[in-house]
Amino acid sequence: xxxxxxxxAASGMGRECVQRLLGTVEHLVAVDLNxxxxxxxxxxxxxxxxxxxVASLAEWVADTGPFRALIHAAGLSPSMAMSxxxxxxxxxxxVHVLDAFEPLVVPGSAAVCFASSAAYIPTEFLGPELMDLxxxxxxEGLLDRAAALLPDSGLAYSWSKKAVQVEVARAAVRWGPRGxxxxxxxxxxxxxPMGRLEFDNHPVMKQMxxxxxxxxxxxxxxxxxAAAFLVSDEASFISGIDLLVDGGSHAASxxxxxxxxx
Length: 262
What we know:
Blueprint: E1 3-7, H1 12-21, E2 27-32, E3 42-45, H2 51-64, E4 67-72, H3 83-101, E5 110-114, H4 127-133, H5 142-149, H6 153-175, E6 181-187, E7 190-191, H7 193-201, H8 204-210, E8 218-219, H9 220-231, E9 242-245, H10 249-261
Parallel strand pairs: 1-2, 1-4, 2-3, 4-5, 5-6, 6-9, 7-8
């Protein structure tokens, strides 16, 4: 009786991921801060920044059946919280989830963690101290040090998602010998409640949309389709990478930068 888990399942991309995975596993667990009620799924309340709560979730999965799929979509955007809470949920929440599920990995287990196109921020905007903190999520005092260096919630969001990509790559190395895979997905401008909140609060996003080659917002079901593919057997040799799903926005920005410098 295989088990799949989706965090951030109450709305947006997480909710679409639940719909995509229904029927692909015998038990599908929909996780959010408050217990979501979704037909066909088992709703569970869990704060992913609480390591103990995440460990309890993983224990339930272990007792229920073989761990097949995890889509970790829970996260906070810049308008939703202050820097410290963003780092705690986005980065440390991802670490808690990956660590808790690692002992459950069997051949065929796969995890997708949501990062963001914001993680592709040029390194010069972060500086050497923050770059040095990447990959140190488990070090003592990391949350205090990172929050002190990231008073701006937007920059904290970008850094936390870049750190998610680093943690995913490292987890892929650990999970691989046991037959498990880990991948990150980085959405661009997506038409979700969270995305619309950021669009309303940051006028620069209108320009980003105008500069997107496909000329539109992405849809939550498009990200869910990518995540569902990555946890499926069809993606059985894909691990340790980030899939950028942004309608070509990053390609346009880097192409423009290269042209300006030539």
